[in-house]
Amino acid sequence: MSSSGVLSFTQQGWEQVLAKVKRAVVYLDSACAESLHWGCGSTRLLEAVGGPDCHLREFEPDAVGGGAKQPKAVFVLSCLLKGRTVEILRDIICRSHFQYCVVVTAVSHAVHLTANHVPAAAAAEMEGQQPVFEQLEEKLCEWMGNMNYTAEVFHVPLLLAPVAPHFALTPAFASLFPLLPQDVHLLNSTRPDKRKLGSLGDVDATALTPELLLQIRCLVSGLSSLCEHLGVREECFAVGSLSRVIAADLANYAPAKNRKKTAAGRASVVFMDRTLDLTGAVGHHGDNLVEKIISALPQLPGHTNDVMVNMIELTALQTEEENCNVVAPGCLAQSNDTTAKALWEALLNTKHKEAVMEVRRHLVEAASRENLPIKMSMGRVTPGQLMSYIQLFKNNLKALMNHCGLLQLGLATAQTLKHPQTDKWDNFLAFERLLLQSIGESTMSVVLNQLLPVIKPVTQRTNEDYSPEELLILLIYIYSVTGELTIDKDLGEAEEKVKKALAQVFCEESELSPLLQKITGV
């Protein structure tokens, strides 16, 4: 897959949107905002909107409507135009003064027909027609209060957030997760006795809920659009039960039949269930700076794959608060800064040591170009050293603006290097290696008994001890590398001891983190 093809797929999609937003109030949902964030940046959208009264707003039930001097609105949405989404659209429009509404959806009209239970044969006969979108256009005019006002509804495949060449994410499907063994019981609860599923291996499309099937079809529609843009005919391969369903749906996707007949190129598409390699997600054996940045720094609100970089150091504001929100945070995505993009790609593709040296080199070169009084230093890169280079830009507005993207990546690196979580990284790695050795030589019950001493309530923990979330990460790691287990008396007793110790830890926490609240339901 060509890197330029992935990026141009996203950028061409956004160009269609940007062509509609001049002097409009623009509402985006989180997934589309993330695609814009990595694909071409919010600056491009602001430039396209133009005018002093332009506004960007999050698409949500409480979103502010358009005022008397704001006659135009553009809604950019990643989801189906159905149910709650349409209700929110109606409510925003009804409390506004819009005379021209554009709704852009990342979901194709073919999937909207499926969502409205139109049979496949009837849908095939509607090729070239878009009755679902046309009906919504009429509704938009009705909600605006005048059937002579203008409404447009159309599809743009805003599927990807291109993080780097050859690496793109699908923010709208961040919650699409593979099925787990216990899900088989839920699926069986609605099936007759003669058609009960024995295991995940028996799961096919007919066994899934209509909601999950629709989510899969939305993903398949976007992937088909990507293949069309690349001019390829795909061959689908799958590892895992849910991946098998997705691959089969893409292979049999009816609207793509003509494309597959005429496509000049070929591409292999491999789907893999994330649950088959959880050790890769929770382990600490990766020697990559970006992995550590994402683990250490707080998540950028509304995003699934970016972090908040504290920018206080580049201001005159004096504060001891780590989470001070007076100054807008920086981030990792630098879609409009060529130098910062080059550094970001280097950070993704090099080991930790080389990456921090690359950050230092970029800062030194930028300071030299701006004739800032830099003092060269060789040897090991430290957070203090990086901060001393970054602060050279502090009182030079021109230099600050010229290298804003680079400075955000530099600050992200320095803040990660001095973060307590980074010091724990090596502790995690050492403990994981010890566990791997124990798993190879001992039974699972012995391994769990080794874990017991590090499960400590808040009153007994130091900064070097594991938090409740970190203990869960270690347990996921242990069970993932172990695989299938034979339950015996010793294992049962060891698991009960671990459960009891964890329950005590959770109960003694003064406040559970959002993750633990979600897991425990408390």
From TrEMBL:
Signal peptide (residue range): none
Gene Ontology process terms (BP): protein transport; vesicle-mediated transport
Keywords, ordered alphabetically: Protein transport, Transport
Superkingdom, natural source: Eukaryota
InterPro entries registered for this protein in UniProt: Sec1-like (IPR001619), Sec1-like_sf (IPR036045)
Entry's family note: Belongs to the STXBP/unc-18/SEC1 family.
Name of the molecule in the record: Sec1 family domain containing 2
Naturally occurring in which organism (per UniProt): Chlorocebus sabaeus
